[in-house]
Protein backbone atom coordinates (compact mmCIF):
# COMPACT_ATOMS: atom_id res chain seq x y z
CA UNK A 1 0.00 0.00 0.00
CA UNK A 2 2.68 2.49 0.97
CA UNK A 3 4.66 1.38 -2.07
CA UNK A 4 1.73 2.41 -4.25
CA UNK A 5 1.59 5.80 -2.56
CA UNK A 6 5.32 6.16 -3.14
CA UNK A 7 5.01 5.52 -6.87
CA UNK A 8 2.07 7.86 -7.27
CA UNK A 9 3.73 10.54 -5.22
CA UNK A 10 6.77 10.47 -7.42
CA UNK A 11 4.71 10.69 -10.55
CA UNK A 12 2.14 13.22 -9.36
CA UNK A 13 4.10 15.62 -7.22
CA UNK A 14 7.63 14.45 -7.15
CA UNK A 15 7.74 14.73 -3.44
CA UNK A 16 6.33 12.71 -0.75
CA UNK A 17 6.26 9.24 0.59
CA UNK A 18 9.05 6.76 0.22
CA UNK A 19 9.35 5.26 3.65
CA UNK A 20 12.61 3.91 4.94
CA UNK A 21 12.08 0.63 6.80
CA UNK A 22 9.85 0.54 9.83
CA UNK A 23 11.07 3.83 11.23
CA UNK A 24 9.21 5.78 8.62
CA UNK A 25 11.83 8.18 7.36
CA UNK A 26 10.08 9.26 4.21
CA UNK A 27 12.10 10.36 1.32
CA UNK A 28 9.21 11.98 -0.34
CA UNK A 29 11.18 13.88 -2.84
CA UNK A 30 13.38 10.91 -3.62
CA UNK A 31 10.64 9.51 -5.76
CA UNK A 32 10.63 12.63 -7.86
CA UNK A 33 14.32 12.71 -8.61
CA UNK A 34 15.38 12.72 -12.19
CA UNK A 35 17.63 9.91 -13.26
CA UNK A 36 21.29 10.71 -13.27
CA UNK A 37 23.84 12.52 -11.19
CA UNK A 38 21.44 13.96 -8.61
CA UNK A 39 21.48 10.66 -6.76
CA UNK A 40 25.25 10.37 -6.77
CA UNK A 41 25.73 13.96 -5.63
CA UNK A 42 23.24 13.66 -2.79
CA UNK A 43 25.23 10.95 -1.03
CA UNK A 44 28.33 13.11 -0.83
CA UNK A 45 26.66 16.23 0.59
CA UNK A 46 26.97 17.43 4.13
CA UNK A 47 23.93 18.84 5.88
CA UNK A 48 23.80 21.22 8.82
CA UNK A 49 22.27 20.16 12.10
CA UNK A 50 19.54 22.74 11.53
CA UNK A 51 18.67 21.20 8.13
CA UNK A 52 18.62 17.70 9.57
CA UNK A 53 16.42 18.89 12.41
CA UNK A 54 14.00 20.54 9.97
CA UNK A 55 14.05 17.38 7.85
CA UNK A 56 13.12 15.25 10.85
CA UNK A 57 10.23 17.61 11.65
CA UNK A 58 8.99 17.19 8.07
CA UNK A 59 9.45 13.43 8.23
CA UNK A 60 7.34 13.18 11.36
CA UNK A 61 4.63 15.31 9.76
CA UNK A 62 4.63 13.24 6.56
CA UNK A 63 4.62 10.02 8.54
CA UNK A 64 1.51 11.16 10.40
CA UNK A 65 -0.20 11.96 7.12
CA UNK A 66 0.70 8.55 5.70
CA UNK A 67 -0.91 6.95 8.76
CA UNK A 68 -4.00 9.07 8.18
CA UNK A 69 -4.36 8.27 4.47
CA UNK A 70 -3.16 4.67 4.28
CA UNK A 71 -6.30 3.06 5.78
CA UNK A 72 -8.60 5.07 3.51
CA UNK A 73 -6.70 4.12 0.39
CA UNK A 74 -6.35 0.52 1.49
CA UNK A 75 -10.12 0.26 2.09
CA UNK A 76 -10.86 1.60 -1.39
CA UNK A 77 -8.42 -0.91 -2.88
CA UNK A 78 -9.93 -3.78 -0.92
CA UNK A 79 -13.34 -2.77 -2.23
CA UNK A 80 -11.91 -2.91 -5.75
CA UNK A 81 -12.78 0.76 -6.25
CA UNK A 82 -9.77 1.78 -8.31
CA UNK A 83 -11.16 5.20 -9.18
CA UNK A 84 -11.75 6.08 -5.53
CA UNK A 85 -8.33 4.71 -4.56
CA UNK A 86 -6.64 6.86 -7.23
CA UNK A 87 -8.61 9.90 -6.12
CA UNK A 88 -7.65 9.34 -2.50
CA UNK A 89 -4.01 8.81 -3.47
CA UNK A 90 -3.99 12.04 -5.43
CA UNK A 91 -5.54 13.90 -2.50
CA UNK A 92 -3.06 12.32 -0.08
CA UNK A 93 -0.12 13.17 -2.33
CA UNK A 94 -1.18 16.79 -2.51
CA UNK A 95 -1.41 16.96 1.27
CA UNK A 96 1.97 15.28 1.70
CA UNK A 97 3.68 17.62 -0.73
CA UNK A 98 2.08 20.63 0.96
CA UNK A 99 3.32 19.41 4.34
CA UNK A 100 6.87 19.30 3.04
CA UNK A 101 6.55 22.65 1.29
CA UNK A 102 5.15 24.21 4.47
CA UNK A 103 7.89 22.77 6.68
CA UNK A 104 9.98 25.45 8.34
CA UNK A 105 13.70 25.53 7.71
CA UNK A 106 13.78 23.18 4.74
CA UNK A 107 12.76 23.35 1.11
CA UNK A 108 11.30 20.56 -0.95
CA UNK A 109 14.60 20.35 -2.82
CA UNK A 110 16.58 20.03 0.43
CA UNK A 111 14.13 17.41 1.70
CA UNK A 112 14.77 15.47 -1.47
CA UNK A 113 18.54 15.80 -1.19
CA UNK A 114 18.62 14.62 2.42
CA UNK A 115 16.31 11.71 1.61
CA UNK A 116 18.56 10.64 -1.25
CA UNK A 117 21.66 10.98 0.85
CA UNK A 118 20.14 8.91 3.67
CA UNK A 119 19.38 6.11 1.23
CA UNK A 120 23.04 6.01 0.23
CA UNK A 121 24.75 6.76 3.54
CA UNK A 122 24.05 4.28 6.33
CA UNK A 123 25.56 6.56 8.95
CA UNK A 124 23.29 9.45 7.94
CA UNK A 125 20.33 7.10 7.79
CA UNK A 126 21.05 5.84 11.32
CA UNK A 127 21.45 9.40 12.60
CA UNK A 128 18.11 10.43 11.09
CA UNK A 129 16.50 7.24 12.32
CA UNK A 130 17.59 8.03 15.87
CA UNK A 131 16.40 11.63 15.56
CA UNK A 132 12.98 10.53 14.31
CA UNK A 133 12.60 8.06 17.16
CA UNK A 134 13.58 10.68 19.71
CA UNK A 135 11.16 13.19 18.22
CA UNK A 136 8.33 10.67 18.26
CA UNK A 137 9.09 9.81 21.86
CA UNK A 138 9.04 13.49 22.83
CA UNK A 139 12.69 13.64 23.79
Automatic annotation (TrEMBL):
- One family from Pfam that matches here is DUF4168
Q: Show where the DUF4168 domain sits.
A: 48-127
Indicate yes or no for the key word Signal: yes
* InterPro entries cross-referenced by the UniProt entry: DUF4168
What does UniProt give as the signal peptide span? Answer: 1-31
Q: Which UniProt keywords apply?
A: Signal
Protein name per its UniProtKB record: DUF4168 domain-containing protein
Amino acid sequence: MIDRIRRVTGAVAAAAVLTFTAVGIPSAAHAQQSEGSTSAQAGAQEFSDAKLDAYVDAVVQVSQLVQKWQPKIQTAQQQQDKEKARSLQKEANAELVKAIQDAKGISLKEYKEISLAARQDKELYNQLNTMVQERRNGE
